[in-house]
Each structure stands twice: as C-alpha cells, then as structure tokens.
Amino acid sequence: MVIDTCFTARYAETDQMGIVHHSNYPIWFEAGRTEFFRNASIPNSQIEAMGILLPLTHMDCSFMSPAKYEDEIIVKTRIRSMTCARIEFDYQIFNSEYDRLLATGSTSHAWTDKSLIPLNIKKLQPEIWLLLEKAAG
Amino acid sequence: MVIDTCFTARYAETDQMGIVHHSNYPIWFEAGRTEFFRNASIPNSQIEAMGILLPLTHMDCSFMSPAKYEDEIIVKTRIRSMTCARIEFDYQIFNSEYDRLLATGSTSHAWTDKSLIPLNIKKLQPEIWLLLEKAAG
Amino acid sequence: MVIDTCFTARYAETDQMGIVHHSNYPIWFEAGRTEFFRNASIPNSQIEAMGILLPLTHMDCSFMSPAKYEDEIIVKTRIRSMTCARIEFDYQIFNSEYDRLLATGSTSHAWTDKSLIPLNIKKLQPEIWLLLEKAAG
Amino acid sequence: MVIDTCFTARYAETDQMGIVHHSNYPIWFEAGRTEFFRNASIPNSQIEAMGILLPLTHMDCSFMSPAKYEDEIIVKTRIRSMTCARIEFDYQIFNSEYDRLLATGSTSHAWTDKSLIPLNIKKLQPEIWLLLEKAAG
C-alpha cells in the first residue's frame, strides 16, 4: 500500500532562500504517516490512546528540487520494513504534476509505551500488527 | 466573501500539554489568507512575484477550545477592512463538525515593496485593489 | 521584575520576505516566560511536574521593525497582572544594541490542571502564588 | 575545529509525547552551523550577503535519548568534508552535563548562487575556502 497525502506549502514553511526550509520535510513525512495509518484503519491518535507511541530512532532526507510557497505537495508513504519492535517508512515528495521529485526520505521508529520503554507490538496488540502487515503488503 | 480552508492538525503542531501549540494559529490564519487570495483570483505568490509584500503589523488570537492531533480544522477567513496602505483580516477556527469554535483572531498588514517600504496598492496595482474590494464585499 | 532573555535569530525562523516569520514571536515570548519563571525560583517545568498547566487564552503582538537572521535578540518579560485564576505577561523584543524595538506583545494564561480544568493557584499552590506575586512587584 | 552551541529547549519544540519533536534537530544543527561559521570568521549572513547560498542536499539524524523542555542543549559542530562544490557537517547533541548523547547527525550542502545554481566556492571566493579549510583542520 502506498498512500498519497496532499496539501499546500505554507508561507511560514519558507526561508530566506525563498524555498521551503528543510526542517519541514520531516513534518511532511509525518503528515504522510498520519494518512497512512488512517488508511490502514488504525489512526495514530487511536494507537496513542492505547498508550502506544512511535518515537523516531532515525531519519534521513535527500533533497532533489526545492518546494516553493503555494506549491501543491504530494507525499507518497509506504512501509519499508517492520518487526515486532520497529517500523520503517519510506517517503517520496512530489509536486502535484508528478513531474518533479522534490525529496525522498525514510524514518525508523520504535514501538514504546508512554514512558518510551520498548514493547513488542505483535504480542501486545496483535490487531495493530495484522493491520499494518496487511498495509505493508 | 468568507473562505473556508481545511486541513488536518499535525503531530508536530502539538506540545507537551497534548494540544496544538498556540504559535501554530498564526500559521493557520496564514493558510486561510493564502486560500482567500486564491479565491479572490489573485494568489499571494503572484502578488509577491510583482514585488509586493504584506508584512504583519499586528496580530491577535483568542483561544476558546484546544485543537488536538488529527482534528480536521476549518479556518474561515474574511477581510475586516482595507485602505490603500493596509489590509486587515478576521479569522475563525472551527473543528470540522462546526460545533466547536477553537479560536478567533485577526491580522493587520501593510502593503510594501521588497524593501518593506510602504506603498499605495490602489495607485500602484489598481487591479489587485479592485479584486480585493470585491472579495471584501 | 523584568527579565531579559537573549538568543540568536535562527535561519529556520526566516521566511521568503527575508525576515523572521511572525509566528516565531509567540515562541520568543515563551522563551521569555521560561526564563522569567526560572528567575522567580519556580521553573515552568517544575510547575508542570506538579500537574499544573498555563494554556493561553489570548495573545497579541505588534511588529515595529523586522528581525533578521543572526540578529541577537533580547526579550524583556514582566507580569502585567495576576489573579488566582489567571496570569498575564507583557513582552518587549529588542535587538541587542537596544536601539531598535522590534515588537511588543502580551499573553494571557489560565491556571489549569492536566485536563485543562481551571484551578485556583492561590489556594492550590500558595507558594507558587507568593513567588509570582513577589516577581510581579 | 569543533564548535559548541548552547541554548535551552523551548516549550514550542515539545510534542504530545512530552519530548522535543524530531523536526527541531535539523534546526538545532543549523544553529550549530551558524555558530561554526561565526567562529570561522565568516558569518553565514555575510556569505549570503555575497549572493552565496548553502542549500541542503541531504540530512540524517539518529536519536539516542529524548530532549525535554528546559533542557540545556549543546550542539557540537564540525566539518566532515569539503570540496569546491560541497560541504558536509557532523553534529552531536548533548545535554549540558555532557553525560547523555541525545542525537547525532549530518548535513550535506551545495554551494550555489541565489538562483540555486551550483558554483565553485574555491574559485569564486578563495577567502571563504581558506577560512573553512582552516576551520576544518
């Protein structure tokens, strides 16, 4: 499953180079994850309501072409890999004409409880595991 | 003219109170202005391409009810007043069920050139003036 | 008591006008509050550890002169008023030479518990009340 | 040359996990770069005033231990490598007691003009090249 998330680049996201500041791309990845979990029938706010968090352990981002204010942005999100302790996502960011790849990236997350102690999602919440396994397919 | 702008509250926008941090509301107002200008047939990025800027001189915001992660947000934007030197916008922020007013606010802007020197928009760009006058009605 | 907080304007805080984006001023005010509470011998993180929050009910900001990347910024913070239910702060933002007032503003806060239910700080935590009353003088 | 940059983690930088949101680490790296350039006697705002930009081509970040609100943060910045077309920085983020490594990361940048066209910094601005070569040592 690859999920598309669409939004408009905000003025506040630009910097004095006249392009979207790079620190916004992790936030755009996150908007993609939010949409991905929703489409997997398990919204992230629902996962958090169960006391389960997904803090990042790693992220990386490569920038190909700058995004500009008012650009229509598309984030393509998919699961790269998952274990009972971790989950990794891949992202591609396009402009809305799909003719320009703006950036690619990935994030790695640990499944933890509210105190950020690692947990085994497969054992603790087998339903979440199954929904995500299906979405990863 | 009152323009609705819709988007999902982002995880990065929350703070450790578990609600959207107040500094995001000016950014949401700005997303409302972007949409307003588009609907007035004069996108803000097009105005800037003419060398005309709209820096803030004042903003205020009252917070009624907190926004939460994944809330569907609606910003209602309208022109409160305009002169040849200034423009003021009013905003109301609702959740998507329109049953909860989250915040209200306003922003005041000066029309300036790229060096932030004030200018007379009515004289300099009468077409922009007319489009906004119409949109203010 | 008026407390000075100093820091350098960040690149990420600029926008494509080449100035610090207005949404950062509430964050700078907040940095001023953090320092104010520390100087009042009651750090905000310690207040929160007691289960007491200070969500905003109102904020406003007037912009006199733009801040630029790498500017040395000074936020002057003081208590404007306080009751057992509310506290209000005033801010002035200067450049480091103190010859240019960049912005002024204020924030109003409610004292609440972790569920954002209002509380009476004077009754619940008389020590915090006394420290702040002293700092307000 | 390794340069230390110190500041206090801001409330606005936290998210609803109660930790600093990961999107702030690239901003903290950038604060480290700003300080690094200053210490190399060539402030970044001065480089930009010459019409030379340093947009990112890549960034990555590994998160070891969460930063919390009001934590005193130290960013250690050094040049990892440089060519006439590119420059790479390494970062380590510590808490102020230096007993906890919070995160490590790197950023890669291209030297470009104001239109984001690549340029040869060694040829165009040999003085900047020499200052950075010295700082990299």
Walk me through what this model shows:
4 copies of one chain form a homotetramer. Chain A has a 5-stranded antiparallel beta sheet. A two-stranded antiparallel sheet of chain A has the order 2-7. In chain A, β4 and β5 form a beta hairpin. Chain A has helices spanning 24-39, 44-49, 121-124, 126-136; strands at 3-8, 52-53, 56-63, 72-82, 86-95, 101-110, 112-113. Chain A has 137 residues and is of the alpha+beta class. Chain A has one domain (3-136): Thiol Ester Dehydrase, Chain A, CATH 3.10.129.10. The model of chain A has no long low-confidence stretch (mean pLDDT 97). Chain A contains 4 helices and 7 strands; from the N terminus they run βααββββββαα. The N and C termini of chain A lie close together (6 Å). Chain A is elongated and about 45 Å long. Chains in contact: A-B, A-C, A-D, B-C, B-D, C-D. The A-D interface holds A 16-17, 19, 22-24, 26-27, 30, 48, 53, 55-63, 66, 116 and D 16-17, 19, 22-24, 26-27, 30, 48, 53, 55-63, 66, 116. β3 of chain A pairs antiparallel with β2 (56-63) of chain D, so a sheet runs across the interface.
List keywords for this structure.
homotetramer; 137 residues; alpha+beta; Thiol Ester Dehydrase, Chain A; five-stranded antiparallel sheet; two-stranded antiparallel ribbon; elongated
